[in-house]
């Protein structure tokens, strides 16, 4: 959406062209007005301009992808688009040439199908009435009004207003625009992607808040006592005198935030406040042909919630920030775990540690897991704590109570505790941390207990590193020797096709058994093993994927990986074969003799729970199934069928598909299996509605809207009745 982004951030990039047409109207248009961007138009086709020529309403266009958006843009002195003030469909661009129709409400259609309707987005009490005029005010407000005539320029009074863009801001607030507690400013994802991002501005009670998700990182509160004692501010507004005011009424201003240009009226340009993709709220005005920053809420680089990425610790001096990764102490106090940079070339991209991702919630979704522990980081603070305390207040607890509350909630990834004030703060999405001179300020990162964790002390880590270097040297020596011996033994079948790839695989620790080709030929017909031959993958791809699959570990809902085989240029992966009483879910669903009662409610849910847990385990350990279909779900009918479904052929799609699959592909495939279990049959139990809700969430078109498999597994676990009986019939 490159060109669309250029319009959206026109204050920084001036590359758009305004389509000049005699069809442009000034001020207002009557009911019955139609407009469609003409062929060959530029990146912005205006159909209505304000009387002062400061604003235009029209369609922005991305010529590469063919996307359109209905927008209001600020204009410069040359009547060219400067920046986007408002966008109707920022998260759902029109994917074909749209037509605008004003028929009492504002409609956008494609091939006569309504894509957007102003009536569906209004909360105005008069929204059911039809408008007579569509107006673009000199303030930049696009609105539908119901009145007998429209003045020129249109009047700014609120009489007869049916709908207005000022009630539905995107990321920008204009001078004179009222911003209420029912509204939100939402940042974009990036300067190249105008969709809704992670940061928002809201009014809550008597204060302005900037939020990262649900966590505040900046606030301004009213200082004056409320005159009417209601305890809540009605709205805020940017004033031409150079400040943001908080108001209970036109006569009752309870607070103001001054700009650099305080008391210097902007006569040539309307001020605008924009919540940027970095999370900062900035105010601009126009001067000398350029945009001038008048105010910024965040001045210190470490005030940004993602200044150093996840787990990073941000320090600043003279407006220069530095990022470092934390070192934590295990619960027994005997060893430390150091986080490592995600990108060694850019410390601001955050830190990582396998220990922080190895908690039991990923394997056993439990509301009260005793399988986890915490890594303590001393002398740190979290960006949100002081704002939470200021805005909402917190109850004080002991350190053990704070720890227990986090353990009891699988979404809690960390907690922070201040020993001197007993303040406890939990978070489910760890962003940047701050250093604290107070050693009593502690951070606790959730990890697996040391009995379950594969992580070791620093001394052991160094030993492993030394051993790895020695093994690498030995591997090189062995590879040289092996290549020479291969030339001598070309008559032997197993040596005839050996390569550098085979020598490399032999030196990788932790790989499963390597099967001779003669053994898999004799065993694959006995159903003791399942053999998959890989096609079209390079030696390095095979090496990488085999190491990745072997490193996943075992899980009760995954078919065990037994080993691999290389025979000449052919490569095979060997899984555990089915038992005599095992059948695939595909066989059960397609068996015409299977009664509907054979897949009763409890059985369906248990099958889905097992699949979800297997996928959640794969995703938590960096794996992806990539080929989740009913034929790759095995059920042991000799033991009740649904109690332990196992996933087969996982991890292979990365070698066979381009582009390789990702976890969200697995979520969507899981939704298809839910739909298959729900398909057909009359008189399905009412509980099936819960599964239908899960299916709809997993089948979302946009990958970012689909839940994680850990969330799905936890949801299924919470609705599974205790000691459920299952009714899957044998197919023998």
Structural key phrases:
four-stranded antiparallel beta sheet, single chain, 21% helix, 31% strand, Transferase(Phosphotransferase), domain 1, disordered C terminus, globular, alpha+beta, Agglutinin, subunit A, 732 residues, 45 strands, six-stranded mixed beta sheet
Protein described:
The structure is a single chain. With 732 residues, the protein is an alpha+beta fold. It has 14 helices and 45 strands. Strands 1, 2, 5, 6, 7 and 8 form a 6-stranded mixed sheet that branches. The protein has a 4-stranded antiparallel sheet with strand order 3-12-13-14, with no helix packed on it. A hairpin with a 5-residue loop joins strand 5 (44-49) and strand 6. The chain is globular and about 90 Å long. Residues 1-22, 122-128, 452-457, 490-498 and 722-732 have low confidence and may be disordered.
Tally of separate helices: 14
The number of strands is: 45
Q: Give start-end ranges of low-pLDDT stretches.
A: 1-22, 122-128, 452-457, 490-498, 722-732
Q: Please give the radius of gyration in angstroms.
A: 31 Å
Strand content: 25-35%
Distance between the termini: 56 Å
CATH architecture grouping of the domain at 25-116 and 131-146 and 160-224 and 231-296: Orthogonal Prism
The largest pleated sheet is described as:
6 strands, mixed
Class computed from helices, strands and strand pairing: alpha+beta
The rough form would be described as globular
User: What is the CATH superfamily label of the domain at 25-116 and 131-146 and 160-224 and 231-296?
Assistant: Bulb-type lectin domain
- Give the helix proportion (percent range): 10-25%
User: CATH first level of the domain at 25-116 and 131-146 and 160-224 and 231-296: which class?
Assistant: Mainly Beta
Mean pLDDT: 79
Briefly note the CATH topology name of the domain at 25-116 and 131-146 and 160-224 and 231-296: Agglutinin, subunit A
